[in-house]
Amino acid sequence: MSDCHGFVSQLFIYPIKSCAGIEIQTTLIKPTGLAFDREWVIVDQNGMFLTQRQCPHMVWITPGLTAEQLTLSAPDQETISVDLAYRGKPIMVTVWRDTLLADDMGDEVAGWLDRFLQVPGKNFRLMRFGNHSTRLSNKDWTQGLDRPNMFSDGFAALVITQAALDELNSQLAQRGHETVAMDRFRPNIVLTGLDGHTEDHLDIIRFDPIACGPELQLVKPCSRCAIIDIDPYTAQSSPTVSDLLSPYRRLAIVDNAICFGMNAVITAGGSQQIKVGDNFDADYKL
Q: Rounded mean pLDDT of 203-217?
């Protein structure tokens, strides 16, 4: 008998790390996370990854996916496409503490990135996670087990309850601030039917349990940086969200960092479908 139940109300993927996301209705969950999520990354001429922390307007780069192409669009730029079948020269890239081989997506898209991002002294490349590369989540949080991810901040998926956002927005409105959308927090899976921040206390989540769907384990609170203060529509930053969360969302387990949502790893059902409306069962941590 499971401890709680609910359903999936939203799904998101972010094909290019730190760029705009895509809200989807259905996808596959693979051992590394949702299909195509954080499979590409933008790096500088030294192979160092780029995020909104250094370049807030990269949130205006909007990826799209077809059966054959990844597209990139941005304000005042022509849309550019990259064939999904294309993989260029492998190059070493660094994402946080990990250095690994990724496949270069070519000069044309690199020039497009330079023209849009326009960061003095920097040139950029679009890189795709290598077919033979491996990046593992921190074993301090995975019970010592190998749990892969791609170019995320360290785990295969991010899970947030809708009620957590509703609670935040209620407080923002009471203080006369504009409410924020779920995309401010860049989740992959949004759960409805649970109280706000119940995800903090869950262990295993089983999706579409009657059909033995995919299974996730929530392993680490998602500590938040300045990105939650960047409005994805204006690329402007304001501390309003962090200031409001600070009194009640600092968690001792992650050195009193502001947390919102839970990082998850895939424990069963790799390459199985998940879709909006799926039921789930979940167990609390012991």
A: 92
CA angle 70, 217, 189 (to 5 degrees): 40
State mean pLDDT over 267-285.
90
Do 148 and 276 reside in the same domain of the chain? yes
Q: Give the C-alpha separation, 23 to 35, whole Å.
A: 13
pLDDT at 251 over 70: yes
> Do 274 and 29 touch, CB atoms closer than 8 A?
yes
Domain count of the fold of the chain: 2
Q: Is the pLDDT of residue 174 over 70?
A: yes
Rounded CA separation 237/104 (Å): 31
31, 76: one domain: no
Measured CA to CA, the distance from residue 195 to residue 167 in angstroms comes to 9
DSSP string over 111-158: HHHHHHH--TT--EEEEEE-TT---B--TTTTTT---B-SSSSSSSEE
Do 74 and 11 share a structural domain?
no
Instruction: Evaluate the CA torsion angle 133, 33, 262, 59 in order and state its sign.
Output: positive
| pTM, to two decimals | 0.96
Q: What is the DSSP track for 217-268?
A: EEEEEEE--GGGGB-TTT--B-THHHHHHTTT-EEGGGTTEEEEEEEEEEEE
